[in-house]
Write a structure and sequence with these properties.
- With about 400 residues, the chain is an alpha/beta fold.
- It folds into three domains: about 5-135, Rossmann fold; about 140-295, 3-Layer(aba) Sandwich (Rossmann fold); about 315-385, Helicase, Ruva Protein, domain 3.
- It is built from 16 helices and 14 strands.
- The strands form four sheets. The chain has a five-stranded parallel β-sheet, with helices on both faces. A five-stranded parallel β-sheet has the order 7-8-11-6-12. The chain has a two-stranded antiparallel ribbon with strand order 9-10.
- α1 (about 10-25) links the parallel β1 (about 5) and β2.
- GO terms for molecular function: ATP binding.
- Pfam families: AAA_lid_14, Response_reg, Sigma54_activat.
């Protein structure tokens, strides 16, 4: 049920608005206020999906109501009601966060369409926030060790900038978590983060994947197609396993970084892009440069900030926190009650050799939860961990 507040000092217009809205949808819960001050007090005490607010009112005008309400309830959709001489003010209101404005006297179809669109927009805003919180929760960096604390501090300093970051570390250490946190804590967080696994794309297709292609560029290019760089415009592109990228693709990435321009395969037309590049690799790129498999100039373009993610064997003190985190997460995914790992079990896990790092630890924990008893013991770890 959508909850709507009508703030209008002219009683006749207020009655018309209430009648139109109540006839449009019987499920609308509609409240009214006769001036801006009264309306703001209602907004402070109640959550509304939509506020229809007149601009010129005694005690407090609609612009002031909008500004104060957006500070209190930023997700509330506002539609401003303006007289014919208030259009400039109404446009200014939209800059301050109003969804739209309608003129007096209100046109029926215009009013109802605006109300529907504003309510739909509120639903989308709330859903996007929910999904963003879910994504952010999925990409937490768990740990309080010195190594992890240093990484969190670097992210906090670097994320608000547009500095390029190269993340290094073995497979399974959580390099993608660092990349996601860099994006989530940046000013680009409302724009997309596009992930590209360079190792998973055949070398002959990597250029098309990154930069797109035009129709006829190659046999299977039956239509124009945008690439990942275009999709990430105003956001972040995460080039995972960049050490596996072909030299030809490296040259095009270098140009994109130098000029903020790309060209689709088969086209000589430049496309301007505004993209922050975060890259990751499990390889020693300096050795790859020596072997002629990686461009040194690209390395220096990418490695403005270097973040080395330690292996799990180098941060064993974080294992109890990781065990607790994965236990709760797996229970949530399976719709079950979280099992308990006793102290002896955790100590055994801390002493094992984690060549597969955090990814391997998560798999072992899931196996123990499935095969072990209600309380996971040291015996369960020795029996089911698969590690000798």
């Amino acid at each position: 049920m959508s909850k709507i507040l009508v703030i209008e000092d002219e009683a006749a217009i207020r009655r018309v608005l209430l009648k139109i809205l109540s006839e449009e949808n019987k499920d609308y819960k509609i409240e009214e206020a006769g001036d801006g001050a009264e309306g703001l007090e209602k907004i402070k005490s109640e959550d509304y999906d939509l506020v229809l607010c007149d601009i010129k009112m005694p005690k407090m005008d609609g612009i002031e109501v909008l500004e104060q309400a957006k500070k209190l309830k930023p997700d509330t959709s506002f539609v401003m009601i303006s007289g014919h001489g208030d259009i400039e003010t109404a446009v200014n209101a939209m800059r301050l966060g109003a969804f739209d404005f309608i003129s007096k006297p209100p046109d029926l179809n215009r009013l109802l369409n605006t109300v529907r669109n504003a309510l739909d927009n509120k639903t989308l805003v709330v859903e996007n926030k929910r999904l963003r919180k879910k994504v952010s929760k999925n990409y937490q960096i768990i740990g309080e060790s010195k190594e992890v604390t240093q990484i969190k501090e670097i992210i906090e300093k670097v994320a608000p900038t547009d500095a390029r970051v190269l993340i290094t570390g073995s497979n399974g250490t959580g390099k993608e978590l660092v990349a996601h946190q860099l994006h989530e804590q940046s000013s680009r967080s409302k724009s997309p983060m596009i992930e590209v696994n360079c190792a998973a794309i055949p070398s002959e297709l990597i250029e098309s994947e990154l930069f797109g292609h035009v129709k006829g560029a190659f046999t299977s290019a039956v239509k124009d197609r945008a690439g990942k760089f275009e999709a990430a415009d105003k956001g972040t592109i995460f080039l995972d396993e960049i050490g596996d990228m072909s030299l030809a693709a490296q040259a095009k990435v270098l140009r994109a970084l130098q000029e903020n321009r790309i060209s689709r395969v088969g086209s000589d037309k430049d496309i301007k892009v505004d993209v922050r590049v975060v890259a990751a690799t499990n390889k020693n790129l300096k050795e790859e440069i020596e072997a002629g498999r990686f461009r040194e100039d690209l390395y220096h373009r990418l490695a403005v900030i270097l973040i080395q993610v330690p292996g799990l064997n180098d941060r064993r003190d974080d294992i109890p926190l990781l065990v607790d985190h994965f236990t709760k997460k797996i229970a949530e995914e399976q719709g079950a009650v979280a099992k308990v790992f006793n102290e002896d079990a955790v100590q055994v896990l801390k002493g094992l050799n984690w060549t597969g790092n955090i990814r391997e630890l998560r798999n072992v924990i899931e196996r123990l939860i499935i095969l072990g008893g209600n309380e996971i013991t040291a015996g369960d770890v020795e029996l089911f961990s698969g590690k000798s």
